[in-house]
Specification:
By secondary structure, the chain is an alpha+beta fold. It contains 6 helices and 7 strands, in the order βββαααββαβααβ. Strand 1 and strand 2 form a beta hairpin. Helix 3 runs antiparallel to helix 4.
């Protein structure tokens, strides 16, 4: 699915974060202030405590498997909270804003990535894509893709909403998809996010979902 020898390293909270340049990804980015700071810090502290426990395991294979499970659980906790917001902005409920975000995601298809699917929720977005490695296209890392996408849509969204300040949370989530089976599961998870959040009866009924397979 990807070549681990070709990757770029970025740092998050002073820890190395590896992004293969030829891979399929599930990325999530959310509105600024969409989760209370104390909730985010609690989740991070719990994750860090479990990560330290995992590092004491002697078997490297067990450590890797447990770390993947931990990462998945961490993401699911975040996503569950975002799907049922009790506070924070919901600027993506404005059809003008949701529309321009959808257009921006589509615009980069076949330029910066090969787009598979996306869903725009009330306060966050899910996107599934493969990074592009073709002679006629420059290679973009996931961090570079998200930086440009978020900067462009934040500027235009703030103008629509007649506001200023941070629009997107600075940190985003990205996960490398390693198998065809995982890719299929991820796409259906993303498409059914509005159904899981009880915003629609089926993914086709939600106006801000897209799947290239249709």
């Amino acid at each position: 699915m990807f070549n681990v020898s070709e990757q770029r390293i970025y740092y998050r909270r002073h820890l190395p974060h590896y992004q293969p340049l030829d891979a399929e990804y599930h990325v999530v980015f959310r509105l600024a202030g969409s989760l209370p700071i104390e909730v985010v810090e609690r989740l991070r502290e719990e994750r860090e405590a479990e990560r330290k426990r995992i590092q004491t395991t002697k078997s490297e294979n067990v450590r890797r498997a447990d770390q993947r499970k931990l990462d998945a659980a961490y993401f699911m906790n975040f996503d569950k909270l975002l799907d049922n917001p009790h506070s924070g902005p919901r600027w993506l409920t404005d059809k003008r804003v949701a529309s321009l975000v959808a257009e921006a995601i589509h615009y980069r298809d076949n330029k910066e990535y090969d787009l598979y699917a996306f869903t725009i929720m009330l306060n966050h977005d899910h996107v599934v894509f493969a990074t592009v490695r073709r002679a006629d296209c420059p290679t973009h890392s996931v961090t570079q893709i998200l930086q440009k996408l978020k900067w462009n849509t934040a500027l235009k969204s703030n103008k629509i909403l007649n506001r200023s300040g941070a629009f997107w949370q600075s940190e985003s989530y990205d996960h490398v998809i390693r198998t065809d089976e995982e890719l299929e599961r991820t796409i259906w998870y993303v498409l059914n996010n509005p159904v899981k959040a009880r915003l629609a009866g089926s993914w086709e009924q939600w106006p801000w979902t897209y799947w290239k397979g249709v």
